[in-house]
Amino acid sequence: MDHFKKNFTNTFEVVCKFLGDGWRVDKLEPGYEYRIKLTSLNFKHFVIVATMEKGRIQISGGVSHGVWCVCSVSTRRQPLAIARDIKRKILSSALGQIELLEAEIKKNQKRTEEREIVKSSIGCVVELQPNYYDLCSFKHGRIHGTVKESYDGCYNLHLSCLSKDELIYLVGFLSTL
Questions:
Q1: Closest CA to 90 of 134, 9, 173, 98
Q2: Do 76 and 146 fall within a single domain?
Q3: Which residue ranges of the chain lie beneath pLDDT 70?
Q4: What DSSP string runs through 76-125?
Q5: Which of 36, 104, 112, 163 is the most buried (most CB within 10 A)?
């Protein structure tokens, strides 16, 4: 098991040739002698990992935080047969997983951009202060405030150190919205 990578790298290099689509053994991952990692530029974010478990080669493939497909093959299996199993059992769902991941990445980028727009808009009016737990914090005169983003896309505003007159004025302003 400690020499899995050394013993099976050549086999998986041949498997990569049978897989086509630019698959290759990732040799940039030192220190992991118990596994072999396969990557392809044509399958961005998708990884195939081979390890030894209970005397068989366990092959799993997927994106970083998605559903991983798994198959197990004998250590005596020919590279062509291993490549066929990988294509049939793992790569058959790869493009769908990649599309889901890329959609999620775009959604997160859009959310981050929207948060930055809100922060910069607030920052144009008041001085922002560093805050790790909320969207932003600000201070204007003696009034302190925090803005939090809820899961449903709404924003919560918390103000403190308001005088009675400022509170009444603010509530009156809010009633006109």
A1: 98
A2: no
A3: 1-2
A4: T--HHHHHHHHHHHTGGGHHHHHHHHHHHHHHHHHHHHHHHHHHHHHHHH
A5: 36
